[in-house]
Amino acid sequence: MQEQEVDKFYGRRKGRPLRKQKTECLKGLAQYQIQLPLDLSTIFPKSQEIWLEIGFGGGEHLAALAEKNPKIGFIGAEAFINGVASFLHYRAEKNLTNVRLFPDDVRLLLQQLPDNSIRKIFILFPDPWPKKKHHKRRIVNPKVVHELGRVLKKGGEIRLASDVPNYIEHMKHVFQLVPEFQLHFSDNEKPHDWPATRYEMKAIEAKQRPHYLIYQK
Ligand SMILES: C[S@@+](CC[C@H](N)C(=O)[O-])C[C@H]1O[C@@H](n2cnc3c(N)ncnc32)[C@H](O)[C@@H]1O
User: Fold this and answer.
1) Mutation pick for ligand 1 pocket among 80, 101, 138 (CB with most ligand atoms within 8 Å)
2) pLDDT in tens, 91-109
3) pLDDT band at 3 (very low <50, low <70, confident <90, very high)
4) Burial group, residue 23, by CB count within 10 angstroms (0-12, 13-18, 19+)
5) Which one-letter DSSP state was computed for residue 33?
């Protein structure tokens, strides 16, 4: 298959040098890493339900969900290597065996995921790119949301959150462009089964009010 061109990635790949413990965790990445070209059948049994978290950051939410749902197969996509190392630390601590990682730009993975293959998708507190001229860098954009509409199973859901009111409006606008999706939930209080993320906790400490959305296909 010819690899399609993917738009440029604008985020960070590396941050502060990792502490020894996290460097050690990163040595185990190859074992959990999803390689391209993608063959989902070699990663999860055909009957297993798959959930995908895009931009999992430090991995708190991914680790909490994977621990609570041991029968689900999880894919975590995160381009920032320090975040990947942080998740691998939780993975080892909680002995999670049901998560595979894509440590790169998620758009490369999305274009190879089969139609109707994912049951739930999470995009939580994505990079806000606040300047208007940078809005096109937002991960929630028509091209990506169209792709999410393709890979999500019928009846599946996408959970989104942000503490930037203008990004919530942007998300609603973009999702309206894809007819497969219906807005199911929009509130400042999230459902009880929704674990916290690091950015969410920071936002709440800074007295920002996050907003939560659920779309269904
Ligand atoms: C603002 S952080 C939020 C992290 C986490 N979801 C949270 O709420 O704490 C956004 C994350 O998305 C990741 N990210 C942005 N674009 C991405 C892409 N195209 N593919 C994979 N990860 C991406 C960034 O590296 C960053 O860690």
Assistant:
1) 80
2) 999 999 999 999 999 999 9
3) very low
4) exposed
5) B
According to DSSP, the β-strands at 152-162 and 182-187 are unpaired
pTM: 0.95
Give me the helix-helix angle, 20-27 and 81-94, nearest 10°: 80
Percent of the chain with pLDDT over 70: 97
Contact 156 CB / ligand 1 (< 6 Å): no
What integer is the mean pLDDT of 62-77? 98
Please tell me the predicted confidence (pLDDT) of residue 23: 84
Q: How far apart are CA 115 and CA 126, in angstroms?
A: 24
Closest CA to 213 of 127, 194, 130: 194
Residues with catalytic function: 127
The response to whether residue 124 sits with its C-beta less than 6 Å from ligand 1 reads yes
d(CA 115, CA 51) in angstroms, rounded, equals 14
Cβ proximity of 99 and 32 under 8 Å: yes
